[in-house]
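RESIDUES AND SHAPES:
===
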Amino acid sequence: MKKLIVLMFATVLSLPVFAGYTGHTEVGPRVDCHMSDGSVDFLPTNVCTMKGGKY
């Protein structure tokens, strides 16, 4: 019974780890990048700035 409780507790604590994508990358959080030609792309902030876009 103790092993079952420990297993259930460990499962509950590990769920946030597998919750999915948080939107952050090594080059910054992903944002809607508005390009000068009017297009919008979902890029990391540094990439958006390098391509001349604004977020």
